[in-house]
Amino acid sequence: MSKILISVDMQNDFVDAALGTKEAVAIIPAVCEEIRKDYDLVIATRDTHHENYLETNEGRHLPVVHCVENTEGWMLNEEVGNALKERESFIIIDKPTFGSEELVQVLKDHDEREPIESITLIGLCTDICVVTNAHLVKTAFPEIPVMVKANCCAGVTPETHEAALKTMQMCQIEII
User: Which helix (H) or strand (E) holds 120?
Assistant: First the structure.
C-alpha cells in the first residue's frame, strides 16, 4: 500500500508574482516539510498556459497572464523545487486547466501496480485548482482516503480558502 502526495501548482506566479499572495508565501515552509515526508510517490502539478492565454475561456474570465510555459512565473517556487529534488523520485504533470485528467490516470496506473492507501493534496490555490483536483481524485477513488492539509494550502483570499475547505469536507475529503 502506498501513500501519495500531490503538490498542486506551487509556481512562482501563484506564490509571489502575477497572482501571488502573502498567504501563499507563508505556506512555503510547511509545503517543503510535507514534500520531505515519507510518501511513496510525490506528484507536482504545474498550471501551464501559452502565449494565447487571454484568448482562452479561462483568460477571458481571469484576464491576468500567468504560468506561461517556460517563463519564470511558470517555474516551481525555488524552495519547493529544491525539496522535490531531495526526493529519490517525483513526477511533474503540466496541466492546461484547473483539474488534471492526466493526474487521475497516473494515480490509476500507480494503483494497478501498487494499491494506494491514501492521497494527500497540498498547494495553490485552495479554491480553484486544489478543490478541483481533490474532487477529481475523490471521484476516481471513492474508497481511498483523500486528504487536504489546510496549513499547506492558500486560496485567492482567506475567505475563499475556508469556503473551499468546507466544500471539500462536505464531499468526504478529509481536511487535516
Answer: strand 116-124
CATH no., domain 2-175: 3.40.50.850
- Does pTM top 0.85 for this prediction? yes
CB 80 within 8 A of CB 7: yes
Alpha helices (H) in 119-175, listed in sequence order: 131-140, 158-170
Distance CA 126, CA 130 (A): 5
- 145-159 pLDDT tens trace: 999 999 999 999 999
Spans of all domains in the chain: 2-175
pLDDT digits 0-9 by tens, 57-84 = 999 999 999 999 999 999 999 999 999 9
